Amino acid sequence: MDGGQITGIIIVAIVMLGVVLKSIFRGPRHPVIFNDGQAKLENQRLREEVSELKERLKVIERITVEKENSLAKEIESLRDR
C-alpha cells in the first residue's frame, strides 16, 4: 500500500466513526407512543390549539388588509377588552 491508499483508508475510517457516534448520541428514532387515552387527550389539545391559532390568524389577516385608520380603531377596540 502506498501513502494515498492509507490516507483514503484513514479518511473513510474517520467518517465511519463519526456516523456511528452520531447515531449513538442521537438516540432512538421512534416517536413517543401514548396509550389510547393519552393519545386522545393530546389529539384534542392539539386540535384546540390549532383552532385558536386559526382564529388569531384570521384577526391578523383582517387587521393587515384593512386601511391604516381602521387599523388604529381595531387596536383601540382590542385595548378596551
Could you name the key traits of this structure?
81% helix; 2 domains; single chain; 81 residues
What does this protein look like?
By secondary structure, the chain is mainly alpha-helical. 81% of the residues lie in helices and 0% in strands. The protein has 3 helices and no strands. The model has no long low-confidence stretch (mean pLDDT 83). The chain folds into 2 domains: 1-30; 36-81. The chain is elongated.
Order of helices and strands: HHH
Strand content: under 5%
The pLDDT mean sits at 83
**Count the helices. How many?**
3
Computed Rg: 28 Å
Structural class: mainly alpha
Overall spatial form: elongated
- Unreliable stretches: none
Biggest sheet: strands, sense, closure? none
Q: Share of helix among residues?
A: over 70%
Total beta strands: 0
End-to-end Cα distance: 80 Å
Number of individual domains? 2
